[in-house]
Every structure is written in C-alpha cells, then in structure tokens.
Protein 1
Amino acid sequence: MSESFPRLSARTRRFTLGVPRGFTISPDGSRVVFLRTKSGTDPVTCLWELDTDTHVERLVVDPRTLHPDEENLPPEERARRERSREAAGGVVAYATDTAVTRACFALSGTLYVADLASGRAHRLETPGPVIDPRLSPDGRLVAYVTGGALRVQDLGSREDRALAEPESETVTYGLAEFIAAEEMDRMRGYWWSPSGDALLVERADEAPVRVWHIADPANPDRTPAAQRYPAAGTPNAVTELFVLGLDGSRVAVPFDEEYLVTAAWDSHALSVVTMTRDQRTMRLSSVDPATGASTLVREDTDPAWVDIVTGVPAHLDDGSLVWVANGEGGHRLFVGDRAVTPPTLQVRAVLDVDHDSVLFSASGDPTEIQLWTWDGHSLLPVSTQSGVFSGRMAGGVGVLTEQSLDAEGVSTTVVRRDGMAVPIPSFAERPGLDLRVSIGRAGRRELATAVVLPSWHEQGSGKLPVLMDPYGGPHAQRVLNRRGAFLESQWFAEQGFAVIVADGRGTPGRGTAWERAVLNDLATPALEDQIDALQGVAEQYPDDLDLTRVAIRGWSFGGFLAALAVLRRPDVFHAAVAGAPVTDWRLYDTCYTERYLGHPDEQPDVYEKSSLSADAAKLERPLLLVHGLADDNVVAAHTLRLSSALLAAGRQHSVLPLSGVTHMTPQEVVAENLLLLQVDFLKKALG
C-alpha cells in the first residue's frame, strides 16, 4: 500500500528533498557545484559537482562517511536553520574560494574543507563548534565563528587565531543578528576582502534587547530557554562594523542608521547598505577600508518604506553600480544612474553579475517569475515558458531552475556557452496527486486567484464546501504558476472542498502602490481581499461553491488572517484553523511590524486595529488555534493571550499546543497529523 499524501509530504519535507539547490559555477564555466540529497526521502544533504563538458556528476562529500552527529548542532546553527527555514540536514550550506577549487562547510559544529578535484574532505581542529565557515578568495584561509568570536585558520600551517573575541556574553562577531536573518534575508555577518588580507565584520551586541523565555511545559524539569527578542517598539541589537586585518589591525566603519541591511566587497568597492529604523531611508555607502571613512553613493527614500532586494549592490566589470530601486510605480533595475527596466516589469532579485551581464528575476504577471538579462545594451528574456524560474550565471554558463503547473517538481538545467542544455536530475518524490488548479483573476480588484477542485468533481454536479487557503501577508505570495504551491491545497480539495487561494493587496509582483496599500492596517485590506476573491470565484463557479459552508486556514500571517476572518466576518466565514497566528502585533519583531504599522508608541490605534484580542467577544464560529510551544519567531504567547481573551469573553474555542515544535513544524509525525487533524476539525465544524 502506498503512503498517504500527509505522510509522504512530511517525510519529504514537502517534497523538497532530492531537489538540486545551492549552485556555484566555476569562473570558467566548466564545473557546477551544488547540494542535493540522495533521494526524495533522504534528509542528509550531500555536496556534488557536475562537469559541464562531459555531463558527468560526481559525489564530492557524503556526510555519512564523515560520521557527524546531526543531532548535536550548536545553538547558533539551530537558530540559523530556523531563520533560513532549512528542513534538511548534512551539508546544508557551503562556501568556496574564487576559483571554486575548495569548499568549506560545518557538520554538527565540526569544520571541514574539501578539495573539489579529489573529493577528499579534511576535518580541521577548532576551539569550539563552528558556524558559517567561509574560505578566503585564494582558498588559503578559512574564517569561521565559534563562541561569538571570529577566527581564521591557515590551511597550510593549521595556525588558528582569533581576529575578534566577544567582550561579553551578549556580543558576537561575524554573525547576522536576529532581525537581519529573519526579516532582511541576510544570513551572514562577515565578508572577505578581494585580496584575502582583511575582513569586514559585524559586531552585534544584544544587551539592549529584552529577554523572553521559551518554556517547555511538557518537560517542567527543563529550564526555560532565554531568548533576546526585539519586539515592536523595543530596542534592537546594536550593530557595528569593523575592518579586521590579518595583521591584527582594526578599523571602525561607523554608520548612524539603525539597520545594517547588507554589505559587499569586490574589486571596485567595499559597499555598505544601511537603513533607518522607520525604513523610509536606505543609504548605500562606499567605504575606505584603510580609514573606515564612508562616501554616500546613493540614498533612496519612500514615504511608506524602502524595499530590500537581494543581490545588490553589485558592479559590472567597468565598475558600474547594479542596484534595484522604486521608480514610476515599479521595482526597477538600475545600472549606474540609469533605469534599464520598465516600471511594468517588477524586479524581484538580482541573481548574478557575470562581467558585463546582469541576471535577474522579474514579474510582468504577478503569478509568473521569469528570468531576464541585461547585457549592457538591451534586456533579453532568458525564460520563455510560463512558470517560476530562478538561476545562476558565471563564465558564460547558466543554471536555470524551472517550476510550472504543467510539470511536477523542479527542473534544473545547465546551459553551456554553446547553448547545449545539460540537465541536473532531481530525486524528489512524486506527490501522487492529480492537480486540478485554475489560476486567474477574481473579484473587484482582479486578485490573482487559484481555484483548486477535487479531481473527481464534475463541474456543476453539486456544491462543495469552500476552504480559503491564504497566506495573505505582505511581501509573500501563494498564487504562483508552479505545482508545488498547491499540493496541500489539492489534498484538502480531495477531501471534499473547493479550495481558493488568493493574493491580496500587499503581495509582490503588482507594483509599489499595490504593496503599500497595507500601510498602517494589516487587517482590513487582507480580510476584504479574501472576501472579494471568494465572491468573485463564486460568480465564476455558481453551481460549485456552497457559500453557507466556508472555512479558512492558514499559518503565521495566514493564521492571523484565519482567526481575523471568523472574528470579524462570521457572516462569511463559518470555521477557521489558525496556525501560529500573530494575534498581537506588539509581540512581533521590530523590522517587520514597524515597516507596516510604525512605532507602537506613536501609533497605538494602528496596532489595536490590526490585533485580535479586542475582538474576542465577537467569536461565534468554531476556531482551532494551533501553536508550537518552542516557536521563537511567533511565540506561543500570541495564541495563549488570544485564548485567554476568548475564555474571559465566554467564547468556546479549541487550542492545540505542539510540544517541542518551532515555527517550521519539521517533525514528520507532527507535520503529517496536523493535516489530518485540520481536515477532521473542518469537516465537523462545517457539518
């Protein structure tokens, strides 16, 4: 008997195991290094290399042969994986030298360096568990963080020394602080100079950040874990930058802004990007590494907020700056001072700069993410089919990943200079679902909407109960032209629901005005748009949707939206499952929350309007609250406080606490049974 979808989805980490990822192309384009597990159910990630001339793949590092203890991860590494939503084990991250001849990585806190030609991996002795190792550009040295100290080891002599050591237990050197990792997509805290004789290093001091305690009620003998969490309106970690020379020199790089967004160090400049706390001003500065003096290169401002885009700053061979900024209502690619993309093409990320060419992802239609290049003279489409694409580019060679509604999984292809395509196989499991997804527009605002019907349902044969399945929050999407986005939705549909997935205002891909419609109100536009989508789809499928039985489910912001729906619009929504919901925005982090709602001391009414506890007495529909008690992102206090308010108001509801579970819910049994329990609850709630 084949496995059920919930069990297979849990075992495969939602069908991500076995998919190639983490690509690095050698400068001459002859080799591609990447990560992949050996099967779709194997959680141990290996390091591989593809010869683009012979098309031969080679296993470089199999962690099982190195005998790591995968359960013995340093706390900093566990936190890093939680921030990056990393569900697998093994070699989940690596770094190479410029020539891509060596790779370094950490396994259970142990430092390894692998020779990519021979495949031999050497274990290096370190004074403590290793976090985020990175090779110098010439491959002679490896830097890493241990115990909050940034250290460098010479791979020839094995001399190991600290370049910076923490002055107190709240200080770290070389690590991205919580806000950078969780909200800015910056997972690193140091950068090698191109010559390999110095590093730009972040010093983060969490002393000002308030201490919260994450308890484990299922094990009362365990001491609650102390965590410094920068909740909205409270102090952030203090971040500083220093240029640390291998000769022992230390040069401060001062900046006045609250947030260190990112940095880059190439042959043209040492670049630092900072942002004010209100996120309305972003500054790109060029730094003199010898003195630490900064020169302002450009300043971007916005009355709502300035967007952070990954992959910039970068430079072409002639030194021209590559940047992304808002202009004429769109996210546009700039080369030098010139916008080279139209405002109708929404740039998502800069993926690579190869000499004089820029590879970037962008959307014309918000349900598509396509690849484009700017070759110094013109824009050229790289992907031409409908779908969601990403990629890398170096040495005239490209790596393209493709997802669509027409094919299962992720397809990866290496495109050589001569145009020949070389596939990199995926070992991912097949979900075994017959997808029946229609993507279109619905409602007054023409919302990007997916309608997912049971494979066995004949249109017009009878009305189905409806399940809204949104995320619904800003800067994230559910409705994309790829099968993987709708696997869980299709499984819910097979249980007898017509499932609707809709992206409302605030979601990316439709321009800056659309995204900024949620400014100062995370509740009203999100809820209005789900109702708008529901009514629009009902007009399109008048004989298939039963609007007297409408449920809604979601996780994180989607959980907030699900609870919001039954609290404020019980006339439309008849049951909800709210997983890890943000119920009080004062309890969520500074960077995300203040971007949309401002400072709570300055706009308390805005926070009240977007939070849920004041609505507790309105509950008249079945509500299931689900929360991991070990969640350090949306802490369990959100659910517990809402539950207390509901109890005080005499409103019946259900709470499912998940002992030892974080925001990711990676445990197989938990992930499997959560799906089954949700279906059972919704069927009973809707009758």
Protein 2
Amino acid sequence: MQYVRAVWRRKWVVLGVAVVVAALTAAHTLRQPKVYSASASLIIDVMAPRFLDGEVKEVMGEERSNYWFNKEYYATQSQIITSRAVAGRVVDKLGLSTDADFLGMAHITDEKTRLQAMQGADAVALVQSRIRVIPARDSRVMNIAVDDFDARRAALLANEVAAAYMAENLALKLRTTEDARDWLEIRLAELESQSKTSELAVYDFKKDADMLSTSLESRMSIVSERINSFNLKLTEVRIQIAAQQARVEAIHRLRKASPEDETWAEALSGASDGPIQDLRRSYTELRMTCAELGERYLSEHPKLLECNRKLSVVREDFLKSLSNVVRSAETSLAESVAQEKNLVRLLDAEKSEAFLVNKKAIEFDRLKRDSDNNQRLYELVARRLKDIELSGMLRTSNVRVLDPARPILVPVKPHVRRNLAVGLVMGLLAGLGVVLLLELLENSVATQADVEERLGLAFLGVMPRLDGSKAPRERDLHVHREPKSTAAECCRAIRTNLLFMSPDNPFKTLVVTSSGPQEGKSTTCINLGVAMAQSGNRVLLLDTDMRRPRLHRAFGVPNELGISSLVVGEGTLDAAVKSTEVPGLFVLPCGPLPPNPAELLHTQAFTDLLKAASERFDRVILDSPPINAVADAAVLATKCDGVVLVLKAAKTNRESARRALRSLADVQARMYGAILNDVDLSAPRYGDSYLGYQGYGQYAEDSKDGVAQS
C-alpha cells in the first residue's frame, strides 16, 4: 500500500511519462517508410526423385530417416536460403548492384556522388537482410518472405530467391559430384598402380621361393610327412639303443664279477647258440678227461700233457667265441647310436626347412593379402566412379515451387496500432518505474513509518502546516488563539503522548531540538507549552538558543534580562521570567547573547537555575539550538529529564536525523520520541492516516460561523 499510495501521489508523473513515450512512439512510427512483404512457398523433399537403380547412390543421396537428422537438414536449408551465395545470384540476375532505387540512393541528385555511394553499397548484404525463411509446422513446406519498400519488387525478389536457391542447391550437388569424381579418378589411378605392383611382388616371390611348380602347402605337407617318419624311426632306434645298452652293461657287470671264471658267459643270451654251446661242451668234457688223467697219471705224463694242450686250445677258442659275443653287442650298440645321430641330424634339417617354408608362407600371405586388398579397392573405386558418372548426368532436384509470390499492396510495417499500444504500455511502465525510483531515492522523513521503522523513535504526533500568509507571531500563537483548530488538536495529542511516556515519573524538564535549522522546533516548543498550560499546568519556556533566540519576539517580551544574565549573577529569576497572554504559560528569554553559549550552559549556575525553575513550575520546556549545528542541545540533554526531536515532514534528511540521534545517544540522553512538523494533511500520503484531524479542522472552521457539528 505504501507503493500504491506513492504511485497515486505521483499519478501525473506516470501519466506524463506515458504520454511522452506514446507521443514519441507515434512520431517515430509515422516517420517510418512503408514496408511490403511477399512470400513464395517451396516443397523441400529430403531426397531427390530416384531415377536410377537403388544400387546406384549419389554423392549426397544418403538416407535421412532420423527425426533429428531431418530437423538439422531443414535448418541447414534455411541457412542456405539466407546465404550470400543465393543473394549474390539474385543480385547478379536482376542487376541490383546498379539499381539506385533498390539501394535507397535515388534521392541523391548528384550523379557522381550517387555512383560513388552505389559502389560502396553492399547489395548482396541488403538482399540477404530482407530474406526471411518461415518453415510451415509439421510439413516439408518452407515459405521464403522478402520485405521491400515496393510491393511488386518484393514479389519479384521472393520468386528470384526461390529460383536462386534451387539453382544453388543443384550447383552444390553438381560441384560435390565433380569434386568426388576428380578425387576418385586420381585414387583409381593410384590403386591401379598399387595393384600391379603388388601382383608383380607376388610373382617375384613365387619365383624366388620356387613356388611355380609346387605350392607352399604341398611343400609343407611333404616336409611334415618327413618329420613324422623321422620321428617314428628315431623313436624305434632309441628304444633299440636302450635295450642294447642294457645288454652291454649287463655283460660288463658279469665279467667284472667273475674275471677269472668262464662260467659268467653262461648267463649271456648269445651263449646258448650252437657253436658256443659245442665249444663249451667240448671244453667241459676235456676238462673232465684231464681231471681223470690227472688222477691216473703224473703231471708229466704224455697223455696228461696232450689232454691239457687240447684243453687250453678249446678254452682259448671258447673264450674267443665269448669275446666275439661281447664285441657283437657293443658293435650293435655303436651302430644304433650312430643311426640315432644321423636321424637327429636329418630331423633338424627337416625342421629348419619347415620353419623356412612357414616364414615364406607368412611373407607370401602378406603379399597376397596386399594384392587382394588393392584389387578389391580398385574394383570398389572403379564401380563407385561409374555410379557417380552416371548420377552426375542427372539434373534432378529435391526442391520445387508450390506457390509463387504475388504482390500484396498492404504494408506489413510499420504496425501503427500495435506500436501505439506498445508505446502506451511501455510509457505506463516507464512512469511506474520513475515513480518507484523516486520513491526509493527519497531520503527524507515524511511519515510515521519513517520515524518508527527507519529511525527507531517513538512517534509522538504531527504538527500540521500552518497558513504561511500569517505573521510569524500569529503562527506561533495559533494553538492559543484557535484552540479548536487542527493544529491545537494535534498539540493536545502530542501532550497526551508525552505524559503517557512516563506516567509514574512524569518529566519536569524537557528539551525540544531538531537536527537542523528551519525545522520548526521553536514553533513546536511554543505550541507544546500552550497545550501544557491549557491542561492546568504552570509551564515555563526557556529560550536556550543563545545564537538565534526568538521566544521573546513570539510573545512580545523584552530580552534585556534573561538566562545569560542569571547565569552570570545579574538579576533574579522572578524578575527575568515574563508572563504571556496564555494563562499558566511563562517565558524566560535568552537575554544578551553571550560569546560562549556552550560553556555557559556547562556551568553550575545554569544547573542551579534549571533546578530552581523546575521547583517553581510544573513543566519546564527548553527551546535549544539544532543538535547537528552546535553542541548546546547535547549539553542541555544531559541536564534534563528527556529530549523531543522535531522533524520537518518531507524536508529533514534521514541521515541528518540519524546523526542527531547518535549525538544524543553519545551523551546518554533520554529520548521521548519525535514530532513530525509541517505536515500537509491535504496531501494524498497523509489523507488516510490523519483524516480525523482534517474533519476536526473543518469542524473548527465551521464553528466560527455558529454551525454546530458533532
């Protein structure tokens, strides 16, 4: 409601700003040239009509079935329509770069100047700025609108932009196809050369690896068969070696166990053969015969000697046969070992050959793979080149005109009604903004809320604005001479509020001050004293403003003897106090102006004077200087029961009032509250709050004519 009242209070500011903005908008709108618009509609398909087989794909003919892809596609087409390439085609076809009327330079009368200006103009950018693309929702239709100052030229430009877009779209497709064909031809030649080179490399490798008659697979198979055969034979030989080696080791163990006895040979497997068995039998028989002869004959007997000789011969033959058996086993073992070595050597050779064949196979596979890849790429590029050459012969487009543009003689700009409505609305908003800004920037104390919320003081009441045409003395005694006026009622309300500030311990001495000069503190002090005296109290007004005293002029009393005289010991209090025309109200003037008022108020004599006055009178009210101007008010605040601060409505600065309050707080003065002075009760901001005072004031005026109202 505070802001609503502020707007209502400054309603003429709002209306004034609105009228000014609306007038400026109207003037600007009416001065704008008329602009006409024409629109041509196109159908843009995602894909061009397909005349070739589905296997033959164009360079820009990819499938576009995704919603977001289609959305980006149509957004791209909109950018192409408004591009400089399309606008340049229109300018070149219509010769707009030399059209002075189109460039807006027909008003230049000088031919040379006009030509220079036309040369510096950018006709392409001008056409580009007038093109608007308006896609139809949920369709493949796009509207190309062109604005111009001539209706027929707008339609011509719209149709030409559509045609230029179609031509640019087809040219872009052909340029892309030509670029792709040139690249593919270069790539095809490179791939052909690479394919030939890779095929020759495969041939040279076959030749060097002797692969012309036998393939690597066959050679690898043969080698594998050999390796398997050698592995089987080697296994057999190693088994044979193991058996033979065991037999030889057994023979050696037997011979070592019986070195002097031939019976060890009987355990050999070869000892049971026919010849050896015969020799062993003969050896046994001769030995038995010799044993018998030895028993019969002496050792030198010829028969015994002959028998021993035959026995030695048979024994020697028998031992030789046994040795041959041992040598035969050792020889067989040596042959088997030699055979094993030969087989191992052959197997290693075959393995080496197998590794070599594998390495050649890897190299051959790589060369063969490169050759196949090059051949496959060559065939792919060759086939794609044929497709592009075939699709490049087509001149089909996915864009066609639905409706050509027609001249519309009704201008689309300026929108007079809309602009005026917008201007009026913006003016009202600007006026409201100005009012709110003024309200926010206002830094004065104007209302009760300012006193209570912003300054934190108790609100004692208001003093209405008095008639400025009256003499100063008439204004000062207005409450006394017009006791039923609005001002008198306001003073009585202030008096009541002051008395209720401390009902148990009512004040005796009260300082009335203000933050600055010309805020009405002296008038308020007089009116407050009159109201106190009218309630039956003996009231004394002390004029402690020893720089600009005015209480003696307000009551018409002499100023030769006053406070300054009493403080310095001249005269008595009874002689200095003057009565006034108000019953019960007395005044103690300032007296001669002292050179040092602040020091005078600090003296014990002034304290004694104030004490004596408070003992003789019910209320003592001190009219002090402004507290921000001099320190007198702060001194007086320390010697009195309380302080009342007078604020001039809509004039007293909030910061000045806060500074005054800080000064009083520094001396620990007791603040009773603030009085809002010079309030214009007829102003809108005070109409609701103080309506009762206005009615009471009306009653007071009517009562003079003898009209009784309640």
Protein 3
Amino acid sequence: MAHDQAAVREVLEAARAEGRTALTAPEGRKICQAYGISTPGEGVATSADEAVSLAEEIGLPVVLKIVSPDILHKTEAGGVLVGLADLDAVRAGYDRIVASARSYDPEASIDGVQVQAMVGAGHEVIIGAVTDQTFGKVVAFGLGGVLVEVLKDVTFRLAPLSGDDALGMLDDIRAADVLRGVRGAEAADRGALANMIERVGALVGDFPEIAEVDLNPVFATSDGATAADVRILLDADPAIAPARLSREEILTGMNRIFKPRAVAVIGASGETGKIGNSVMRNLINGGYRGHIYPINPKASEILGLPAYPSIADVPGEVDVAVFAIPAKFVPAALEDAGRKGVAGAIMIPSGFAETGNVEGQQEVVEIARKHGVRVLGPNIYGYYYTPENLCATFCTPYDVKGGVALTSQSGGIGMAILGFSRTTGMGVSAIVGVGNKADVDEDDLLTFFEQDDNTNCVAMHLEDLKDGRGFVEAAQRMVAKKPVIVLKAGRTAMGARAAGSHTGALAGDDKVYDDILRQAGVVRAPGLNDMLEYARALPLMPAPKGENVVIITGAGGSGVLLSDACVDNGLTLMEIPPDLDEAFRAYIPPFGAAGNPVDITGGEPPSTYENTIRLGLADPRVHALVIGYWHTIVTPPMVFAELVARVVAEERAKGNDKPVVASLAGDTEVEQACDHLFANGVIAYPYTTERPVAVLGAKYRWARAAGLLRG
C-alpha cells in the first residue's frame, strides 16, 4: 500500500509554521490523496466567478463550504450549502457563505470557498481516528451522517491495523446488516470501506502529530467509498510512546521476584498487629524455603531469625525486599536495597500518588530505575506465589496450589479474590496486588505468566492501564496459549474528552477499552463475581472445536431460558440433522421434543439423561453440551451428578473431549450435586440458567481469539 509521505509532511509543516492545529478542507484533501483515500472532485474559489467556473468544470450539482483555518465547525457558521444545481445558485451561494462566515467570526481568516462535487448516494458512515490517552492512535468506524452522535453505533481498533481487522470493524457495529443491503437496498463495497479504514490507520500511525481524523460522511456504494468531508486536527506536542523493557529484561526481573532465593522484610517486627510482623509470619508459616532476612535497626532477632539493622548488612544475596515501613522512610531504604542488588521491591506502604504524593512516588521510581530494581506497588497488600510457598503479604495466607493467576489494582478486590478462592477451593498459582503501578504493571505480569508452566489462566482486575499498547501486545501473546480475563472498573464513566469532532465525541473511554480488549483476545467480565467464576471454570473446560452447541434439558422452561442465554452469549444452537434427531428421539418419550433444545421431560429415569448426554458427547458434529436438570425423585440430584460425571469421564477417555455445562433447578440438594460436578470437570450451577452459559460463552470467546475453532 503505497503512500506519499512527503506530500503529507509538506502540508503538516506548512500548518505548523503558521502555528495552526487545524487543517483546512483542501489541505485535508491533499493528505487524503497522498494516502489513496477517495474524495469528491473539488477546488477552491476566491471569487464568485471562480466558483461558477469550478462548478462548470466539476459538474452540477455541487456543495459549497467555507475554507478558513479559524472556523472548524462550518455548519454552525452557516458555511455549508448543499445541492446547488445551477450556476446562478452557485454565484449567490458564494456571496452568502462568505457573508455568513464573516458574521459568525469577523476576525476569521477566510481562504476562499471550496466547490465540491455533490455526493449523496449510498450508505453514510464515519471513518476516523483519535489519540486515546491509554492506547494512543485508535481508528473508528460506524454509522455516519447527522445521527452519528445520537446512535453512537461505532467501533474502535488500534492503529495501524490489518485488512482483516478493518473488515472485522464492518461486522462489529449494530447496523452491520444495513451495509450488507436489506429490503432491496444496495450493499456497500466492503473491500473499499475496509481499504479506507486501513489507510486512515496507516496515516495516523505514520504521523503521530495528527491528533484526529474525521471523515464524515463517507458515502459507501456498491462500487466504492468516497469521503465527502475531511477534518484533520494536529497535536502541537504529540505524546511520546512510553519506554518499554524487552521481554528478556522483564523476565529476568520477574523470575527473581516470583522465584526468590532470599527475601528481606524491611520493617520486620516481633510485635503482633504490625504489618512487618504479619509479613514475617506469612513467609515463615507459609513454608517459604528460601532465606528470610528481617530488617530492623532496633532488634537483634525477630520470630527466631537474626535481624539486621539494614539490608546492606545482610551477608548473602537478596532477590526481593518487602517494604513495611512508612512512606517517608522508603527512599533511603530503597537506595540501600538497590545497592544490594535486589531485583524486586514490594511496596506495601501507602502515602504516595493515591494520596496526592506524586513527587514522592516519582522519587521512588527514579531510585529504582537507577539501580535496576522493579517496584511492585506502592499501596498494595503484597503478593502470593504458591509454587514457591511464597506468601509475601500482611493479609491472610493462602496455599491451595493451582493454575490460576489473579491480579488486582485494589486491596479490597484482592481479598475478595482470596475469599472466593478459599470457598470454592480454586487453586491459584499467584495472587498479586499492583496498587499504584508506579513500575510493574499488567504487561510485566502477563509476560511472566505467559511462560510460567504453573499458570494456565490469568484474571485481572484493573482500573486503568499505564500503557495500553504494551498490554495489548502482551495479552495477544498470552491469549494464543492461555485465557486472559479482565474486569475493567469504571465502565460507565465517559472520558472528559472535548467533543471537537464526531470521532472524538464518540470515543468514550469504556467503548475504546471494550473494543480494543476484544481486539487483544481478552475475555472481559462484566462484574467481579463473573471474573472469578470465569477464572475458576475456564481452566477446567476443554476447548471447543466448533460452534455447534446442543441443549439437553429435563424441563421445557429451562430449555427456553438456556436458549436465550446462548443467544445472549454469542453461541450457535446447532441445527440438528435428521439422523441425529432420529437418534435422540429413540431415547426420549413421545411427548418429549427433539430438535434443539432436546427436551427429555422431567419424569425420566437416569438412563434417559445418560443416553442422550452420551449421544451428544459421542457425535463429532456436536461441539458443546448445555444440560438443564430438573430435580425429581425419579432422578435425584446426586444420582444425576454422579452419572453425568461418569459419562463425561468415559467419553473423554475415548477422545470425545468437549465442554459440558449444567444448570440445576431444584431443592437445596442441587448445591451438593453442583459441587460434585465441578470437582469432576463439569461446570455446574444451581438456581441459574444464565451463569453456566455465560461461562461457556467466555470459553468460546477465548477459543475464537486463540484460533482454535474449525472453520
């Protein structure tokens, strides 16, 4: 895709020389031409006679637009006239537009009037780009025209982007079917639209000083796409991309932090109730096998271990220093830790940026960088890494080992993670607080967990991202191997962004987060309990190999709700082929219902559940099963749970390994039945049809992102 970067640079430098941050429409058209973005035929007139001549040359009807670097919103200034069909109208229109512009802003510099071929056929869409404070350059696509900010049917991707990502944007808006042509309407040229999206992404990727691009409307027909209006804003001081460590540098530090040979506790205490005492007790009682060095200038021994006045006095090497001292003492102690060669500083103390002490936090970061120390925190509860029996925290210990790593930006959320893990018996590899994220953030942790054989799933609570692009790159690497689940707090808050353009006004923070997290392949959880349940369940479920989902239910009402839940979660209910339909009918009563859902009715014995479930598992055309159970004395809950666990295990042994989720309705006995099913790798929940299907939907979202589904 060839671009004339020199032509763009010439336009941008001319604007910069004049101190302008907004390009005129003709300048915008030059940039579009340089990047192969189609615009209507046009010219700039400086008199009514020139306007008439241009209209004759271009062909009627035409549009007239004021050209002024000082008038950004042309319509508000009365600076746009549309559909001028004869030359007299063009002559009069020129004078009218100039008069309106001068009335709107008497001080405005007016370069002339743009005479543009009238484009009005096809679908109106918007294509643009904004500079997001988290993700940098972001491309937008959606419905255009006058209703764009009312309907807000728009989607975002990181720029630059691939042709496949651009095509995906066309399908990602609610009005996607409109562009395909409905009720006899003409379909839009998808290739032309995707090409224009890709070119806008390339433009802003090549020129960081372009703050916003707004092509609205773009008219899309069956044989092309044309940007009828172009608006480009510049950034006088473009943001510099954050510096990033290499993957190897990150892993060097993270491996020493998560697998330390020695841990020092700065501020260790023998007094119960002190944070330094709690950290020491957790390290000792948790079974950590490395060296533990308490640091306290007023003690010679703490909890049976020799204490040292400073980390500098420790005789051996130290990988991790846990700070349990007030914020004002941190800088000096960190200097000592840095000179000692510590890899990680675990900053439990509060009193930094979260309380307004930004300078103090920056001082800590600068000291750490000088010595090559990675800082976790400050303002955190610490961290757990169960493979090393490492409990470096002042909170309650946790030692149930498993494959789920969880991180949180909030201490309270961290403790909710801990309680949920304990109640459900969910084994974890790590629980990590990131707090203020002065240094170590989610990118670093994903880089470690990606290659950590003890971790097979990561769930993250976050309030913001320091480096959105760094996160996306790390997440995409990990998603190819393991699920990444994210709970993004603040999804209802709109960014305080000036509505300088349609594209800018549409770029609410959460919408950008939502689309780009999806672009990264991340599974986004709507709430805290959802995140925890996804983390608990996804590692237990085999990945589906295709999209065909079959519901088998003992209750018609549950079947309807389960069907609704499948649709809500983007799952495809299989169209049962005739031979499989006949096979199901052989096992269900005449008053039951085959099809999908397969309704075996409530009064059936265990054998009916067993036969239909086994059939669904054995048929390779079925890729996932959703089971709806209704409590009866004929098939009690534990009988149902034991037979499902047995049948699933037997079929998995034969290679029929597919996800199975179950919804159990009944008396309280169904709770024990769900526990038994979970313990045997079948995801089951009592009293809900929505939760098991939501978990299955989350597994499917990851499997699609990881490219695991056939077709």
